[in-house]
Amino acid sequence: MNQREQFSTRLGFILATAGSAIGLGAIWKFPYVAGQNGGGAFLFIFIVFTFILALPLMMAEFAIGRTGGEDAVTSFKKIAPNTKWHWVAILGMITCFILLSFYSVIGGWVITYLGKAMTGSLNGLHANEYASVFEQTIANPWISLGVQLIFILITILVVAKGVQGGIEKAAKIMMPALAILFIILVIRALTLDGAGKGLAFLFQPDFSKLTSKAVLDAMGQSFFTLSIGVSVMITYSSYLPRTENLPRSAVSIVSMNIMIVLLAGLAIFPAVFSFGLAPDAGPVLLFHVLPTIFSQLPLGMFFFTAFLIVFLFAALTSAFSMLEIIVSVLSKGDSMKRRKYAWIIGIAIFIFGIPSSLSYGVLSDITIFDKSFFDLADYAVSNILMPLGALMMAIFVSWKMKKSVLFEQLSSGSNISRGIFTSWYYLLRYVAPVLIFAVMLDVLGVWDK
Ligand code: PFF
């Protein structure tokens, strides 16, 4: 099959990009980062960054991808020949490599729970026993590496085949199922005793507690959940026909993602406060809270299993996009090479991810810069590499590409007004670079007196 014909339908493209965006970022990462950063104020800046940075950048990546019409590296080379700009795409590939190495650890945790829920080994546990059962399980190196490997193998197999067709069909059922299961979960969470405290935590911002770390985390989170700054959106949009309305696609993806983020927050925080758990428990937060809420529902384990299946699907569709961008550059449309590179890179990612996987067990005492391997990889990706990629992307589009080309890209298939286009353009040209740079420097204490 010819690579460049992949998404001939609008829905296919939306599902693939939404599939890349919606994943562990909204469901697992958002609650734990918001929990560590005080809740409401974090949610507020996260939403602001989503609209003033991540959404315009998504449109920027779409414009690059459709102008270039090739894999990310080649697209940069085509648009800016004889320059070093294609290194932005190479940086994106490196970022995705590191990203998948720890993303797969969490994907593995979902598989672990799925196994437990399906075999009934969680039945009859008391609400506060789930956390210790979970902790013991992930501390076991064989289990934690085994499930991580399963997650990566599924990713390799799908990317090696080079078809998104089956996935698109499944996504049409899985995405609505995810939303419905979340709504059930939210209703249960909101009717728990003491749910109000969780709502207050999430929706009453206390800006006095906002730290520079929280601001950087919020920016990193807005890029992370929307897969921005790593060329994924460039790669996917390169498969698009001219008639596709880029701004409208970007707005739909961002809205779907925000909806899932809000549902996750509305499910998790009321439960955290009602059960007296710690909102700043870190990456394990979701995994402590979820079974506890489900155990309070009739047919709880059935719903929990269903939830874990769609959750795993959402995590996998994000993982596919990470491996896809690396493999698409290396294989250049050759299906033999695609298979070969999917395996080589996938296995290399697994090996690279071993220390992250063991961070919750045998390597838990080892820290670098005060962080475990897992936290370090996550920090490097979310707070350094993705913002850096986004910064370069903003500069590339607004300083290197022709304004007329950009207008043509954004207006073909849409009726975007000149005013909106110009605001977008200047936002990327001035506001985004300065803001991203300032937020990154702020954490280094550059602005402190
Ligand atoms: N957006 C994905 C999530 O929120 O789970 C994570 C992600 C996928 C980030 C692909 C970057 C990427 F290239």
UniProtKB/TrEMBL annotation:
Alphabetized Pfam families for the sequence: SNF
Lineage top rank: taxon: Bacteria
Recorded topology in the membrane: Multi-pass membrane protein
GO cellular component: membrane
GO function term, MF aspect, one: symporter activity
Xref: CDD domains: SLC6sbd_Tyt1-Like
Listed InterPro entries: Na/ntran_symport (IPR000175), SNS_sf (IPR037272), YocR/YhdH-like (IPR047218)
Keywords, comma-separated and alphabetical: Membrane, Symport, Transmembrane, Transmembrane helix, Transport
Name of this protein: Transporter
Source species of the chain: Cerasibacillus terrae
